[in-house]
Write a structure and sequence with these properties.
Number of helices: 21
Number of strands: 19
Helix content: 25-40%
Structural class: alpha+beta
CATH architecture of the largest domain: 3-Layer(aba) Sandwich
Strand content: 15-25%
Oligomer: single chain
Amino acid sequence: MCGILAVLGCIDNSQAKRSRIIELSRRLRHRGPDWSGLHCHQNCYLSHQRLAIVDPTSGDQPLYNEDKTVVVTVNGEIYNHKQLREKLNSHQFRTGSDCEVIAHLYEEYGEDFVDMLDGMFSFVLLDTRDKSFIAARDAIGITPLYIGWGLDGSVWFASEMKALSDDCEQFMSFLPGHIYSSKQGALRRWYNPPWYSEKIPSTPYNPKVLREAFEKAVFKRLMTDVPFGVLLSGGLDSSLVAAVAARQLANSEVACQWGSQLHTFCIGLKGSPDLKAAKEVADYIGTRYHEFHFTVQEGIDALEEVIYHIETYDVTTIRASTPMFLMSRKIKSLGVKMVLSGEGSDEIFGGYLYFHKAPNKEEFHEETCRKIKALHLYDCLRANKSTSAWGLEARVPFLDKEFINIAMSIDPEWKMIRPDLGRIEKWVLRNAFDDDKKPYLPKHILYRQKEQFSDGVGYSWIDGLKDHANKQVTDAMLINANFIYPENTPTTKEGYYYRTIFEKFFPKNAARSTVPGGPSVACSTAKAVEWDAAWSENPDPSGRAALGVHASAYEAQKGGIAGKIAIA
C-alpha cells in the first residue's frame, strides 16, 4: 500500500513549492517506505511514496506512457493487469508493475476505462498535452483518498488527510466508485452494480457458485513478489480466508518464491476468545502461526498515535484499530509486507448480531447495501490505515467486485437469520463451505458466533478503554459537549476523549466532517437502530450491545450498561 499526493493547477511553481510538496509527501512515508518519486510539470505535481509489492526492482512511481506525456501516481493493486496487458499489445511497457496499465488504458480508452480495473486502487493521472487530469477510487473504497481545494484554485489529492489538511481551505473524503475529471470539474460515479439501487434481488442461493467465487477472489490476491500472510482472528471470515489461501498456495506462482506454508497472525489480550480459536484454526489448516499479546495499558498508550494514523474519532473504529495497529508493527518486524484480511463479509451477509432483529428481507437487504456503501468510512479505513502505518498492505477478498455482485444478487430471504430453520448469521456463507468430505474448518469454528474484532481480542479491552476515558473526561465536560463539539457531538466519555485527541491533530471543520455520526448499536446504521426500541437506551457499537443475541451481552439497565450476563 503506497502513499500518493497530487497538487494540480497551483499558482506557484517555484522551488519553494516543490520543497513544500516533498515535505507534505513525507507525511505519507509510513505508507511507502521503499522509495519516493516526484513528477513536476509546470504547476502540477504528482508525488509517490512506494511500498514495493509487485515488481520491487523496476516499478517505482510515478509511471508513464511511452512518450511520458501521460503521468500517473497509483496506490493499490490491479489484479487483472496481465489480462489487460494482452489487450494493450500495441503498447510498450517500461516496468512489470501492475499499475502501469492505467497510463496505457487512458491512452486507449480516454476517461472511460476505470471499470475495466479489477483491484483496489486510488490514482491521479495527468495528461501533460492539455494539462487535464483525472482521479479515481476503487469501487468500495478499500484504498483511502481525499480531495481538497486551495485558495489559489489548485486541486489536491492525497492518500491521507494529514498530507493536505494544512494547505487546503476545504477537503473531503473522495467518494468510492467515483472519478473526478478536470474537464468536467466534478465527481461522477463509475461503479454502477445492480445492488447499488437497493432493489430486492431474487436469484436463488447456490452454495457452489458462492464458494467458487470466493475461492477465485482469494486466489487472485496471492499476486505478490514479497513475503505475505493472513490475519487470523479465529472467527468465520478470517478463518475462511486462511483456509482457502492455504489450499491454493501450493498451486500459485508465489509458492515457488516463498514456499507453500502459509503464515497466519493473531493478536489479543492473554486468554482472549480470538487467540484460542485462531490457534485451533491454524493447527487445523496447517499454517505457521504467530501469536502476539498486548495489554490494555499498551493499547491505551498507543491511542494518540492510532488516531493520528487512522484519522477518525469513530469509537468502534478506534477500538478495533488499536490492536490491529500493534499487530501490524509486529508483522512488519518479521519481514512480511502484505496480508490478507476478512473485512466486508459482515456487511455483505448481514453478519452483525443486530441483523437478528431485521423485520423482513427487504429491510435486511437495504441495510446490507447501506453498510457496504459506508465501508470506506469504517472497516476499510481501519484495515488500510492501521496496517499502512507500518508499511504493511492489507488485501480483502470479500470485497472483490465479482464476489460482491454474486453475493448481493442472492434473494435476501436466504440471508435472514432463522433459528427455526437452524440458520444463524451468515448461514449462506457457512453452508457454502460446509464440506464433510474435505472440510475447510472444524464445524464449531465454521458456526462460531460473530465477534467484532474489538470484542474478540478480549472483552476487558473495551471495558479498559471506558474506564480510562472516565478518568480523563468529567461529567461537566460531557454535559457541555454540545457547545464544544456542536457537530457530531460525542454522547459518551469514551467518544469525547477520542474527539479531543482527533481535534489536536486535525482542528479544521473540514476534518471533523469526514467522520460519520449518528446512533449505532453493534455497528448498525442509524436506520437499523429503529428495529428494536430497547436499543435506543443502549447506544454502544460493541457486538455485546446486541441484547438478547450475543452470548456475552451487556446487561441492560436503566441509565446505561452494567456488567455482562450469559444468555442461553
